TrEMBL record:
Keyword Transmembrane on entry: yes
TM region positions: 282-304
GO BP: glycolipid biosynthetic process
GO cellular component, one term: mitochondrion
Matching Gene3D superfamilies: NAD(P)-binding Rossmann-like Domain (3.40.50.720)
PANTHER family associated with the record: SACCHAROPINE DEHYDROGENASE-LIKE OXIDOREDUCTASE
InterPro entries named in the record: NAD(P)-bd_dom_sf, Saccharopine_DH-like_oxidrdct, Sacchrp_dh_NADP-bd
Family: Belongs to the saccharopine dehydrogenase family.
The Saccharopine dehydrogenase NADP binding domain, residue ranges: 11-140
Protein name per the record: Saccharopine dehydrogenase NADP binding domain-containing protein
């Protein structure tokens, strides 16, 4: 890609006045104002001016943050914005409705891109349409840089990377066990999910749900893995029962896409299981069964338009979301269990890890910081990314694009990301 170091901005927050976009801007105001060339962008000048005024209360220097105007469906106008920055953080969804011109112009202008989509079918379309063009232009288009799917994707990558570099082995399987969490729901997230279900053929939705390699096969990767079951799963290393995790449908597909894109890291027939911890003993088993039944019922119901209409009436509308108090009192945690491949009949080694955020809710305050650090990683860490062999262009995952460089940034931003135990013994080193 032609050098973008002389561009006016390192980061532009597109969709800055949306619920999560505002949070990204607040993080910048608190942690990076004065050290980062950045701008806010969207289509409503008055809302952007109000946002800038609000940000100046956090940090007076934000009074000078530039405002850029465009409509997401106007390619020429988007191009005039995107040619000014190294990286754009795309915060306006549903992405299937508002993301195509942004991606198109990122490729055209040679601008890197990060988003927080969970719209798996749209990710597939973007790969088919833009992957080769992005490679030709040296552009990174990185999807799913929020709670969907950074914990799953980078948590798995950290474990695989540790087993490769510290144990000299490949990884047969990673289990992500999501535990206690506290947070709220935003209308934008609901709107994105409903739009995906409503606009795609039922056959495509069914394929996405049943095919663990729905995205990985785009990069010529298949294997014997299957999606997490709706029935209770016993997680032996944790000695507990688990039910399905609601976002496994996107997270699992992203993890397998990373396997396809990061050559020589994951196992020969790598498998991934993502579940939600429900407890021990028969109560844990019963709870896991209830979670599975509810998940299956909700997933099936959302395919039917009357249920979607009812959900729109009772759930938050776009632009609405959890209160500041809920966001700041929130948290999330995911335990990771990785098994190395067997060698000459010798059982694999079990490695345990952990990722989480002890002080921010998963969907919004934590997500907004994750996507910000991903964008900063692309904007500021060129040499480190190159030195660590990260993928240099194309439609990709955070693990493929940024790997352990982004893990280190997340740690510095207050997240937990570490390997804690190898075969029952405390790990000698964190996954550095």
């Amino acid at each position: 890609m032609t050098s973008t170091s002389s561009r006016a901005f390192e980061i532009i927050v597109w969709g800055a006045t949306g619920f999560t976009g505002k949070l990204v801007c607040q993080h910048i105001a608190q942690a990076y104002q004065g050290r980062l060339r950045w701008a806010i962008a969207g289509r409503d000048k008055s809302k952007l001016e109000q946002l800038r005024s609000d940000l100046s209360v956090i940090n007076e220097g934000c009074k000078e943050v530039p405002i850029l105007l465009a409509d997401a469906r106007d390619g020429a106008a988007m191009g005039q914005i995107l040619c000014q920055t190294r990286v754009v953080l795309a915060m306006a969804g549903p992405y299937a409705l508002y993301g195509d011109k942004v991606l198109e112009q990122c490729v055209e202008q040679g601008t890197h891109y990060c988003d927080i989509t969970g719209e798996t079918t749209w990710i597939k379309k973007s790969f088919l349409k833009y992957n080769e063009k992005a490679k030709e232009k040296g552009v990174k288009l990185v999807h799913c840089c929020g709670f969907d799917s950074i914990p799953s994707d980078l948590g798995t990558f950290m474990m695989v990377d540790y087993i490769k570099n510290h144990l000299g082995k490949k990884t047969a399987k990673v289990t992500a066990l999501f535990g206690a969490a506290k947070g709220g729901v935003s209308g934008g997230t609901i709107a994105s999910g409903m739009n995906m279900v409503a606009s795609e053929p039922l056959s495509e939705i069914m394929n996405m749900g049943s095919n663990a390699y729905y995205l990985a096969e785009l990069a010529n990767k298949k294997g014997s893995d299957i999606p997490a079951p709706m029935l209770p799963s016993y997680i032996a290393p944790a000695r507990c029962w688990a039910g399905p995790f609601i976002m496994e449908g996107v997270n699992g597909r992203i993890v397998h896409l990373s396997d396809a894109l990061v050559t020589g890291h994951y196992g020969t027939d790598f498998k991934y299981l993502e579940v939600s911890k429900t407890g021990v003993g028969w109560m844990g088993w019963i709870t896991a069964g209830i979670v599975g039944a509810l998940t299956a019922t909700i997933s099936t119901s959302m395919v039917l338009s009357p249920f979607r209409a009812l959900a729109k009436m009772v759930l938050p509308a776009p632009g609405q979301g959890p209160s500041v108090e809920v966001q700041k009192s929130g948290f999330w945690k995911c335990n990771l269990y990785a098994e190395s491949e067997e060698e000459a009949g010798t059982p694999g080694v079990l490695v345990e890890g952990l990722c989480g955020d002890p002080k921010r809710d998963p969907g919004y305050l934590s997500t907004s910081r994750m996507v910000l650090e991903a964008g900063l990683c692309l904007a500021l860490e060129d040499q480190r990314l190159l030195a660590q062999g990260c993928a240099q262009s194309g439609v990709m995952t955070a693990a493929a694009a940024m790997g352990m460089v982004l893990v280190e940034r997340l740690r510095a931003a207050g997240f937990t990301w570490e390997v804690v135990r190898v075969a029952g013994k405390e790990a000698k080193t964190k996954a550095a």
